[in-house]
Amino acid sequence: MQISLLIVMLLAPYCAYGQTDTTTFTDTATGITFQTSEHGSGMKFGIALPITPGNDFIGFFNGSVKDVSWAGADIGGSIMLGNLLVTAWPYTTAAGNSTIPGNATEAAPVPAKCKIPLGDVRLATGYATSEVKMYSGVGAVKVLSKPISKGVFQKGDIWQYTFLCQNCMANSTIALDQKEETMQLAYVVGSQPPEGHYQGAPLTEHTDRAVLYFSPNITAAKSDKFAQWAKLAEAPPNCAPKS
Ligand SMILES: *[C@@H]1O[C@H](CO)[C@@H](O)[C@H](O)[C@H]1NC(C)=O
Ligand SMILES: *[C@@H]1O[C@H](CO)[C@@H](O)[C@H](O)[C@H]1NC(C)=O
Ligand SMILES: *[C@@H]1O[C@H](CO)[C@@H](O)[C@H](O)[C@H]1NC(C)=O
Ligand SMILES: *[C@@H]1O[C@H](CO)[C@@H](O)[C@H](O)[C@H]1NC(C)=O
Ligand SMILES: *[C@@H]1O[C@H](CO)[C@@H](O)[C@H](O)[C@H]1NC(C)=O
To answer: Which region is the signal sequence (predicted)?
Structure first.
């Protein structure tokens, strides 16, 4: 069993509370304004919220295929274990190639509509990559990463995934408290893509890529345009390999 990045996150120190390190950024592709944090790899993560705390948020990932094969942002706190992790990764020809030694699975054909960045929502129940599983909510509260198509693309090496995280904040035990002004969150950047190019594909990453903490200004992330932006989200393409 492989030890994942999550253990690194558990050991990292907290930084000063009450400070924010995000900046206001409006994405030209969608017109959505986010509080964004940029990591040394060039990976950018952003968050937009409604004025009145609700169950949804809008998220944004942007980076280079060369540097970032998958990225995840923890939206429940600085510790990934037991908190929701939103992930996204670009389409690469390596998708489907397992990097687990001795287990190079045959790449499943990726449908044309899925040759774009994909995202999903996961919950880590343990320290191994196999324990970072898709999370779809409890009962009728369906948790879903819904792409905003104008903000989902790959151009050369650059990829972007903009999404409505539906019901991601329905359960405050595993997601941020929107009543706070700021909160320390975390994200990870991986050098290996998941095992396949479909939502819920097992993560292969288990090495030492950087883990970043960021403290979004939650107050500044709130916009009265949120509902209008949220309407841009669509059902995710079904990219699951046919069994
Ligand atoms: C996306 O990431 C690339 C590579 O780091 C960068 O050049 C580009 O400006 C970014 N775009 C946005 C909208 O942040
Ligand atoms: C998977 O890896 C093998 C060996 O490195 C390579 O020949 C093959 O082209 C890869 N498959 C894809 C879909 O990239
Ligand atoms: C290889 O990977 C497949 C798909 O993830 C998995 O079902 C299988 O158990 C793995 N085999 C070994 C020997 O790890
Ligand atoms: C909220 O999340 C916690 C931790 O995963 C879980 O035990 C609980 O059942 C969840 N509650 C609801 C209403 O989904
Ligand atoms: C967060 O942003 C608001 C403006 O939206 C500002 O008034 C406040 O000082 C900021 N808080 C911090 C801790 O930077």
So the answer is: 1-18
Q: Mind listing the pLDDT tens digit for each residue in 86-142? A: 999 999 866 544 443 444 455 567 888 999 999 999 998 887 788 889 999 999 999
pLDDT digits (tens, 9 = 90+) for 175-218: 988 998 888 888 888 878 888 889 999 887 654 445 678 889 99
pTM: 0.85
Q: Is the shortest distance between the CB of 196 and ligand 2 below 6 Å? A: no
Domain containing 183 — which CATH number? 2.60.40.1210
- Number of domains within the chain: 1
CA proximity to 187, closest of 66, 22, 2, 24: 22
154: CA distance to ligand 2 center in Å?
A: 21
Atom index in ligand 4 nearest the CA of residue 174 equals 2
Nearest-atom index, ligand 3, CA of 195: 5
Ligand found nearest the CA of 168: 4
Domain extent at residue 102? 5-230
Using alpha carbons, select from 179, 191, 187 the residue that is nearest to residue 218.
179
The residue whose CB lies within 8 Å of the most ligand 4 atoms, and thus the one to mutate among 79, 85, 173, 177, is 173
Contact of 192 with 21, CB cutoff 8 Å: no
Max Cα distance, the chain (Å)? 52
